[in-house]
Amino acid sequence: LQDPQAQRWFALAADQSERGEPLGAIESLKRALSIEPDAAHAHALLAHCLLASRRPHAAAHEAAIALNLAPSEGSSHFAMAVVCLAQRDWRRAAVHLDLAQADDPEDPNVRRARAQLFELTGQQKRIRPELEAALTLEPDSPTSLAALGSYHLGRGEVPRAKELALQALQIAPQHGTALVLMGHTLLREGETAGAQEHAVWALRIGPP
Question: Please, what sign has the CA dihedral across residues 150, 114, 100, 23?
Answer without folding.
Answer: negative
